[in-house]
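Retry 2 of 3 after timeout on previous attempt. Resubmitting structure tokens to design endpoint.
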């Protein structure tokens, strides 16, 4: 078979996996989007704002577990080991690491909720307390999705999310029909959906829950993951600082309006952005290993172009129908935040320009170089919110978000141009071994004449 035919087959396989991953990410995003919609419907703007603060913690935690567990597994090609037993052990230890993180985060969430209730912030505190017991299940369910991607089986990730969404949808339907007016009940329905997916994943991948080796796995990958973690936390803190500081300046109603506009834009946009990341990193690492810089470069270009075109179409819809969509999805009180949604749509579009750059830097193990971009954007985000939110309200917070994302994207793209190819070629360069021993010398008297 010719090389060109092999490349066409590989490209077709990558495209199919990306398509399945996009459908799966759509279902995953629907589950997260739906819980916000139900909370907004049953608890109003103020209740939705309180939930959004606790949900911000989940987003930060999701970024942490990917940096500490799944991204290093994808970069090291753990699930493409030669022996089936090695793959099974990698899967088990990854789950142990996830459960360890989940239990620790549940304790932190419960502590935050208790403090908030004690100081009189009952709405905010209750959301943290109710979320706490579901965090291990949310992490485990997301882990199984990534295992599917890393094994080149995105259909298994899709099946897991179907289980999650069906259980959640049934429970949400009951809540709306019965007329329950509690955000806590909606959060529990979301958590039960995650629990169903987490248990189903154990059967899918023939694994069992255990904490043994979880801490050791995190420690063993720390050299690679620490910069992924620093960058991811900085990136999430940059995003969520908009939410937290907006709540401080504008209260629950302000944060509720901002989150409604953000969810309207980010919900569908993240379907493509996260699908690109979930399928892109394993494909990029595999492409680099098998075809060198050209293989990595191809995956990087596909993901960047697909993300930009897809999010661009979403932005056009938001520009044209933002007010109507906000009113339809969240209620008439949210229609006034259409201008905020427009600004956030531009921010998401700018963000797609850094997708390929981030993949290349991760796949070439230049994780340390991803941190400065997010650290600088965090500082700019905080300063911009402090200046703009009190003066321009929710719209000012949106402009602060756009500013931070633009800076981060610019730094990542320039860093990628400067270092990715050199790092890729360095990784693939044969390691020089010890010099070969010189042949034994032959005495001159023994040389044939």
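Retry 2 succeeded. Sequence:
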């Amino acid at each position: 078979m010719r090389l060109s035919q092999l490349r066409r087959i590989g490209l077709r396989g990558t495209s199919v996996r990306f398509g399945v991953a996009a459908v799966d990410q759509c279902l995953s995003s629907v589950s997260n989007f739906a819980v916000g919609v139900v909370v907004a419907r049953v608890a109003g703007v103020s209740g939705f704002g309180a939930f959004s603060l606790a949900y911000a913690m989940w987003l930060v935690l999701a970024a942490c577990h990917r940096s500490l567990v799944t991204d290093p597994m994808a970069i090291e090609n753990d699930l493409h080991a030669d022996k089936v037993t090695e793959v099974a052990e990698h899967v088990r230890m990854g789950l142990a690491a996830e459960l360890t993180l989940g239990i620790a985060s549940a304790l932190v969430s419960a502590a935050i909720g208790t403090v908030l209730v004690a100081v009189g912030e009952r709405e905010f505190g209750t959301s943290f307390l109710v979320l706490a017991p579901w965090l291990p299940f949310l992490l485990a369910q997301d882990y199984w999705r990534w295992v599917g991607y890393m094994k080149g089986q995105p259909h298994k990730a899709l099946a897991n999310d179907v289980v999650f969404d069906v259980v959640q949808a049934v429970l949400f339907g009951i809540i709306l029909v019965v007329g329950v007016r509690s955000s806590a009940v909606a959060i529990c329905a979301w958590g039960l959906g995650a629990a169903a997916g987490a248990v189903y994943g154990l059967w899918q991948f023939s694994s069992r829950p255990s904490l043994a080796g979880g801490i050791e796995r995190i420690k063993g990958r720390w050299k690679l993951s620490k910069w992924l973690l620093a960058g991811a936390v900085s990136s999430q803190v940059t995003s969520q600082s908009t939410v937290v500081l907006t709540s401080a300046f504008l209260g629950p109603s302000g944060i509720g309006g901002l989150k409604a506009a953000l969810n309207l834009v980010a919900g569908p946009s993240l379907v493509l952005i996260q699908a690109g990341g979930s399928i892109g990193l394993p494909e990029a690492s595999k492409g680099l290993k098998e075809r060198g810089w050209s293989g990595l470069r191809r995956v990087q270009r596909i993901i960047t172009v697909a993300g930009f075109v897809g999010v661009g179409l979403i932005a056009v819809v938001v520009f044209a129908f933002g007010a109507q969509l906000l009113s339809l999805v969240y209620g008439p009180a949210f229609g006034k935040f259409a201008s905020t949604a427009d600004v956030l749509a531009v921010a998401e579009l700018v963000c797609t320009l850094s997708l390929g750059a981030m993949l290349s830097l991760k796949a070439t193990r230049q994780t340390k170089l991803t941190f400065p971009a997010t650290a600088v954007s965090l500082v700019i985000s905080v300063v911009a919110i402090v200046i703009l939110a009190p003066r321009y309200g929710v719209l000012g917070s949106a402009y602060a978000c756009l500013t931070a994302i633009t800076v981060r994207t610019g730094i990542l793209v320039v860093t990628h141009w400067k270092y990715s190819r050199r790092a890729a070629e360095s990784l693939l360069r044969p390691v020089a071994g010890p010099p070969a021993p010189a042949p034994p010398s032959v005495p001159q008297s023994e040389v044939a004449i």
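Attempt log closed. DSSP finds twelve helices and no strands in the chain.
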